[in-house]
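In the current project phase, the collection of sequences with tokenised folds has grown. One resulting record follows, to show the layout:
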Amino acid sequence: MDEPGAVTLVDAHHHLWDLGANYYPWLSDQPEAHFFMGDYTPLKRNYLPADYRRDARRHNVLATVHCEAEWDRADQVGETRWLTGVHEREGMPTAIVAHAWFHTPEGEEVLARQAAFPLVRGIRSKPVTSLSPDRMTPGAPGTMQDPRWLEGFARLEKHSLSWDLRVPYWHLYEAAEVARAFPRTPIVLNHTGFPWDRSPQGLAAWQKAMEAIAREPNVHLKVSEFGLKDRPWDFESNRQVVLRAIGIFGIERCMFASNFPVAGLRIDYDTLVRSVARMLEGFSERERRRFFVDNAAAFYRLAGVSTNERQP
């Protein structure tokens, strides 16, 4: 029986990894110098379905979407193949957001191979970005203005795949141009657009960028990952971000995502879910169901998701 206050949800973004069997450079031997939450040493351990189930046990998880986890880029399809085996053994994840570079010579072939896996619903391919707004290099190889990148991006529609967009907020204006140029490609912005600067000026800049991309009707939002570098998880600060973000996009285009185990650097799964549910107390029951279940199920085409079923 569910505990009091348990939330029924689709988790639209989580990760799994087996460091003994597979190679993730950032978790093994190539530390990410600019990781957005600072020291991530606690993540350098296996995180498998049993670990996810333990973290999520207090809630009614109907389905999960696995987002690519920086697997060895020399074997981009390997992660999808491994996850398909995990699904066959464990019943999760329900769907996969795989990886394929858009601008590389082998990009077209890799994308086609990824699309052939039944669980694949979308691609996350991170464009080249800058560490700050004053260091941007528009048009450079791998950026969202690179003609080769755009040529590769255009293939998503051919394969009926969505794009998971993950960039700092100062790149959202460029992303809005991409969304406008490809209106039939569903796009979902990861991690609430990364509102890292919580000063009044920083939040104003983030909000302006979010408003720009939200004008494109094919763009949706994952309300997830409010963790900040070297700062604890703060309910009130994050509540303001969540309510602003939902106000910009409309709750009909927003979906819950845990980003576990990464979010676990700052908060446990149960507290995260209950906190976000508290933030949404002013919304109707129907609106909360759309946010926690229906929007993600529709975006990722999760057939048969029902509040009467419990997975994984």
